[in-house]
Amino acid sequence: MIDMQPVYLSIKVAGAALVFVAILGTAAALIMHRCSFPGKAVIEALFTMPLVLPPVVTGFILLLLIGKQGPIGSFLSEYFDIQIIFTPLAAVLAAIVVAFPMMYQSAKAAFKTIDPNLEDVARTLGASEGKIVATVTLPLALPGLAAGAVLSFARALGEFGGTIMVAGSIVGKTQTIPLAIYFAAESNDLYTAGGYVLIIAIITFAAVLWVNRWHAKTDLASRKDRVIC
C-alpha cells in the first residue's frame, strides 16, 4: 500500500509555492519589461540563475541563508523562536526559488507579445497605470501567465535537490513525492517508487493538458471574433 502523505504534502507545497511565484514572478516580469535602469541585466541574470544552477547548489545556498547559523535562520531563531530548516516551510521556500524563473520567463515573454499601442490608447483615454495593468496588460498576457503558472507548479512539484538540502526527507513531515521515489528506489522497492512516479506523472500531465485545452479554446474564441468582425 502506497503512503499518500508525500502526495498530499507535495501538492500543498507546490500550491503554496505557486501562489508566491505567480505574484512575484508576474510583478518582477512587469517591472523588468517596463523599466530601464542601471544593473538591469545583472538582476535578470540573478532571477534566472536557479533555472540553470544544479538544484543541489540552490539548496546549499538556501541552507547557508536559512540554516541555524545563517543570517536569516539565526535571526528568526533568536528573535522569534522560529526554525525553518527541516520543516515543510523549508520545502516551500525551495520550491519557490526553483519555480520562480519559470514564471518570470513566461510572464516576460507574455508581456513582450502585447502591442504597446493598446496600452497607449488606454492612456489617452485617461486610464491610470494601475488600471491599464489590470484591464489591458494582464488580460492580454493571461495565456502566457497561465502557461507559466502550470510550468511553475510542475517544477515545484518535482523539486528534489533543494528540498533534500533544506527540508530533508522526514517521513510524515517533509518527505515529498520526489524524495519518496528516490528513497524507495534506493531500497529496491520498485513497486512503491513506480506508484509515486505514476502519480506525479498523472498530476503533471493533467495540469499541462488543462492549460493546452484552455489555450485551444481561447484561440478558437479569438478566431471566431475575428471572423465576426
Short description:
The protein is an all-alpha fold and 229 residues long. It is built from ten helices and no strands.
Give a description of the structure:
- With 229 residues, the protein is mostly helical.
- Helix content is 80%, strand content 0%.
- The longest helix has 39 residues, at 190-228.
Give the topology, please:
Blueprint lengths: L4 H30 L5 H13 L2 H12 L4 H10 L7 H25 L3 H9 L4 H29 L3 H6 L10 H10 L3 H39 L1
Helix pairs in contact: 1-5, 1-7, 2-5, 3-5, 5-7, 6-7, 7-10, 9-10
Core attributes:
mainly alpha, MetI-like fold, 10 helices, 80% helix, globular
Average pLDDT, all residues: 90
**Assigned CATH class:** Mainly Alpha
CATH second-level architecture: Orthogonal Bundle
| DSSP helix fraction | over 70%
**What is the CA-based Rg, rounded?**
20 Å
Low-confidence blocks of residues: none
Provide the CATH topology.
MetI-like fold
- Total of DSSP H or I helical runs spanning 4+ residues: 10
How many E-type strands? 0
Which superfamily, in CATH terms, is the homologous superfamily?
MetI-like
Terminal-residue CA separation: 58 Å
The H/E string reads HHHHHHHHHH
Derived structural class: mainly alpha
Major sheet description: none
Strand content: under 5%
